[in-house]
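Something for you to look into today, if you have time. Could you write out one complete protein record for me, on any chain you like? The space below this message is yours for that.
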Amino acid sequence: MRRVMLAGLWSVAILAMTAVPGGSTGAADGETGSAAQDPGVSVVAVDPSAPIDPTHPDSAQDPAVTTSPTPAPPTPVCSPTTALVDPEATPEAVCLAATLDEWQASGRYGIGQQINASSSSYLDPVTTLAPDRPAVVGFDLSELDLGETYGFDLPPLQSLLQLSADGVVLTASWHTANPKSGLDSGDRRWQSIHELLDPTGTRAARSFWADYDAKLDLFRRLQTGDDGAYAPAAVIFRPLHEANGTWFWWAQGTDPADYRALYAALQQRAWDAGVHNIVWAWSPNAVTNDYISDPADLRPERIDIGGIDSYEAMANRGEQDQQLNITGLAEIAGTVARVAVTEAGPHGSITGGWDPTVIARTAVQQNLKPVYVMLWFDDGDGADGYTGKKQIGSLRGGRSWLSQCPQGVCSL
C-alpha cells in the first residue's frame, strides 16, 4: 500500500469534502481527486501548523515526540511597483499587490476560480483540479457569511486562510441584498443610494451599513489570521461590481456621483474600523450590448485594480467567438496600473464546450496585460441561458490550460 503525504489545504480539503454529505447549492459536483479515488492510496492529513521533527516525519501527529514551539512567521516585506490606495495597508496586502506587479512585469497572469462558500461542496471547483491549482480563488462575502453558520466540517473562512498561506491570492465580491426590501441584489425596485451616504438617516441606510459592518468582521478575521490561528491574509475586494448593467440595485438608475461617493464611503468605513488588508478593485461589465452603459463616469477616485466582467452567450450556439468581448478594459487600463478580467466565461453552456484560453488571448491581441482572469463556478444546467458550466474543470480544455501554468500562473 502506497502512502501519500499531501501538504496543507489539499489533503484536508479532499478528506473533508468527501466526508460531507449532500450536494452543492451553487457549485456543481465534480470528480474527486486522484488520491481519494485510488483504493491503494492511504492519504494522511497533516496539521500544517504543527511542528515537525525532520528526523521523524510523523512527529506532527505523534504525542510521544517532543519538539520545540514553531516560531511566529516573520512579517513579510514587499515593494509593489505602485503603492496601494490605503496608506496603512497591511504587509500582506502590500505583498499581494507586489505579487500582481511581478506577474505583470514578467508578462504573466494568474488563473482564478470562484467558489460558492455557502455550499457544502464549496471547495470542489478547486480541489478537483489537483494536482494543479489556480493562482487566485474568489468568493462572495454574503455566501461566506452564510457558510460560516452552516457547521461544515471545514469552515470556509479557515479554508480561505489556508489557501492564502499556500500562496493563493484571494478576491471577494459582494452580492449584497437590497437594503430597502431585504430581497436579493437583483431587486431594483429601490435604488436610492443617495440615502446610504447618511449611515443613520433611514432604515435602508442602517440596514446597509449593518450588513457591511458584518462583512468587515470577516475581513478582520482574515486580517488577523482568525486571531492568530493562521497567517494573516489579504483580499482583493471589488464591491458594487457591474454597475453599468441593468441587473443590480446599485447599477443603472443611480446617480454616478452618488455611486462614486458610496464606493469611497465603503473604503473609509473599512479604514476607520481598522481593516487594512483590502486591495481595492472596481469592475464594471464589458459593454457587450446597447443596454450596458459606458462605465467611465462610475470610476471611483481611488482604486488599486481595474477590471471587467464579460460572459459570452452560448445558448443555442455551437461555437464560441474567436475573441471575448472585453470592451471597456482598454479605457480602464489607461487610468490604473493594474487590470484584470475579474469574471469571464460562458452563459447558458450545457456541455461546457467553451475554451477559456480565449480570455488571455483576447487581452494580448488588444495589448493588455491582465494580472489575473477569473472563472465562475458551475451554477445550474444552462437551460435558462445564463447558468451552466463555468468552472475550469468543466470547460473544454480547462484542465489542460491550467496544467501548463505552474501554480496557476501562465505566460501571456
Remarks:
- The chain has a mean pLDDT of 88.
